[in-house]
Amino acid sequence: MSSYFPRSKDLSRTRKSLSDSPPSSPSPTAKNFRHERVSRVDSSGGDGAADKALGRTSSYMRREARLASLNRLDDDSGPKDYKKMYETALHENEKLKSRLQDSKQELARIRSQLERVTQRQDRMSERSSSVLESEKREKHTLEKRVSDMEEEVKVLTELKSDNQRLKDENGALIRVISKLSK
Questions:
Q1: Which are the contacts of 169, defined by CB distance < 8 A and separation ≥ 6?
Q2: What is the domain extent for residue 69?
Q3: Do 73 and 64 touch, CB atoms closer than 8 A?
């Protein structure tokens, strides 16, 4: 019976694919694989990808530490309680799913807020552009009125000077006529 447990433990490790979580007690090859994966992400991703890779690595390390502590407890106490391990893994998965759902809801809420802000800014820019256009039109009409009034002022000054000249001529003619009639 004692030979059964190590074999089942080895079989469970060989059945896992590379995309699954890392083994509970990391072997040197698993550590190297994780290191290669992180270094590949670091070399291709830039600063943001490095931060994400470090975050993933730290979460993997925390999970490994938890699983290693569970394995140590199980190794010390005798045969493993797979049902209990399954229930704890299931419970942890449920917690992670609920956190993921909460994160998705928060992301949707933030996206809707961003969309509202963007729409508000668009409306404000449309209003400001329409106000700007109306101000330009108003400025143009006012400039036209000013230029028309300047022309009228020029015409009025010319008319005043013509009127004054005609008054002077009229006065001279009246004097000439009065001298002739005497």
A1: none
A2: 20-80
A3: no
Look at the block and give the residue holding tokens 């005043």: 160
Tell me how crowded residue 64 is: count the other CB atoms within 10 A of its CB.
Answer: 19
Interacting residues of 74 by C-beta distance below 8 A, sequence separation 6+: 80, 81, 85
In-domain check, residue 56: yes
Closest CA to 30 of 22, 40, 38: 22
Residue type present at position 67: L
Core vs surface per residue 34-62: b (16+ CB within 10 A) or e: beeebeebeeeeeeeeeeebeeeeeebee
Q: In angstroms, rounded to a whole number, what is the distance separating the alpha carbons of residues 85 and 70? A: 9
Give the mean pLDDT of 155-164: 93
Per residue in 80-108, pLDDT (tens digit) is: 789 899 999 999 999 999 999 999 999 99
Task: Tell me whether residue 152 is in a domain.
Answer: no
Gap between the Cα atoms of 57 and 98, Å rounded: 22
